[in-house]
Amino acid sequence: MTHSSTPGIELANGSRIAVIGGGPAGSFFSYYALEYARIFGLSLDLDIFEAKDFTRAGASGCNQCGGIISESLVQDLATDGMIIPSDIIQRKINSYTMHTEQGTRVIHIPSNEHRIASVFRGCGPRGCLDKNVKGFDNYLLGLCHKKGARIIHKKISTVERIDDGILVGHSKTDVNRYDLVVGAVGLNKRSLNLFKNICPAYLKPRVTRTYISEFMMKPADIKECFGSSMHVFLLNLPQITFGALIPKENYVTLVLLGKDINKEVVQRFITSNHVRACFPRDFPVERTMPCQCYPFINVSGGHHAYADRMVMVGDSASSKLYKNGIGAAFITGKAAASTAIFQGISERHFKNYYAPICRDMDRDNKAGELIFHFTKLIQKSPLFKRGILNLIAREQADRHSAFRMSSALWDTFTGSAGYRNILRRFLHPALLGGLLSSSVISNLPSFNSHDYEK
Ligand SMILES: Cc1cc2nc3c(=O)[nH]c(=O)nc-3n(C[C@H](O)[C@H](O)[C@H](O)COP(=O)(O)OP(=O)(O)OC[C@H]3O[C@@H](n4cnc5c(N)ncnc54)[C@H](O)[C@@H]3O)c2cc1C
């Protein structure tokens, strides 16, 4: 069956696709490949191989993540008919609370709607006894299963090219031929190395270590101390670019991003007065958390993540710097699926129709690097931090304000907008002028520091 104007390798009725990795990127690829094939009248055989069991609590069922589903992703999913069910959502987030040594400010969503969701990727942290917890990754796999994908809970250990396809296997004796192989293995080093065999030009993304842990708390305490707000910290602590506390139903998730986060950095953060003050007075924050990990996060995209009959998606290919990685998995998964179904599966097809999407994300991340560089400078400057708090307070108090600082910070925290777009807004003369004047005013001796109280 020929369905492309450009010659090359194409999928046909009965073609077999192996998707290695059933995280968001693998699921989004599978969902859209099967949906586009249905529209196109193409019958495909699609297997998703996933090593983890997302119905289990703890590490064996978890793709370590803060679990924030960005505003833009919630909307994109809804547009395509994927309304995240309420039993997957742990808490609807309606505001961000920014903490600095100089004070605290709450930034509300302009429309005051609850459009950001916090979720668990698996079935909750180690030791989680709540049997009602349902994870986001399993929800996505379920959608793929409904579309006709076969979910195989096996870890793939062999990927090998042959003349008319690619062999994929989870043991020496159980190897199958596929027409197309999709690499959605996240940042798993060993699994990424498998793809070097069939795509020697592929370079893995550069990564850095982060930190996640979960504080188990009474729902009433979470409501009282955190509300429906994600708490972000702009503290002058070395190695930390971004720290956040994300409220869920029975847990609060701590996420630390920065440069090579380790035990000492974590300890400094959780024992700092400003973090400690977010918890109930007698809550033992220093006690070892039952579930904590130091996962990697992308600091650059991969290179040349495609070849004949092979494409990589999500973290394995390109992601958004520090934010909205699930949204990036959506973009790359969907773009690779559209290329494979509507264009073809040769290297040239992926180069022409898929690679530009990854390159655009990588270029956007350059603007993100600049934003996080400025953030680090601001972290060290009490003068600018006072100015930002003052400006946010003025904007939030005035319904008719342009909300320039609030909305630029909002999109930086949520990852909902592109970094180039956010950078342009941060550099708007009106915002810079407002920041400068509020920094000067709020640092005058006559300025009332109580204005910074929550
Ligand atoms: C600290 C931290 C906090 C984050 N917080 C957020 C957040 O709040 N919101 C957000 O949008 N993003 C966040 N991210 C980013 C987000 O987690 C990732 O971008 C996203 O999970 C990428 O999806 P993926 O499908 O590409 O990879 P993954 O989610 O890593 O999925 C890869 C899957 O492949 C499977 N796999 C690997 N090798 C094999 C194999 N050989 N055989 C079979 N299966 C295999 C794994 O088991 C896994 O399920 C965060 C990341 C970190 C590190």
UniProtKB/TrEMBL annotation:
It comes from the Bacteria. InterPro entries: FAD/NAD-bd_sf (IPR036188), Geranylgeranyl_reductase (IPR050407). This is NAD(P)/FAD-dependent oxidoreductase. It comes from Robiginitalea aurantiaca.
